Amino acid sequence: MSSGVFVLANATSARRWLWLFLAISTLIGAMSLIVPLYWLALAFLFLASLIYLLLSPDKTFFLAIFTIPFTERIRVLPISFSINEVIILFALGSCLLNGLLTASRVSLRTSLDGWIVLLTLLFFGCGFFSISHTGLLGFFKIVEAFAMFYIGIYLLRTRQITRANVLKVILVTALFQASIGIFQSVTGIGSDFRSARGYLGYLGLGSNMVWHGKGTTWHFNTLGNFLVVSLLVFVPVFFRHIRRKKIALFWAGIILLGIITTYSRGTLLGLIAGLIFYLAVSQANWKRSLLMVGAFLLLVILPLGSYLSNSSYVETVSYNERLTIWQVPLAAITASSKAFWLGSGLNSYALAAWPYIPAFVPLSQYHNWFAHNFYLLTVMESGLIGAAILFSFLLYLWLNAWVQYRASSGGHKTYAILISSAMVGVFFVSIFDHTFASPHYKVFVFVLLSLLYAQDVPAKRVASFSA
Question: CA-CA distances (angstroms) from residue 141 to 80, 84, 129, 437?
Answer without folding.
Answer: 11, 11, 16, 10
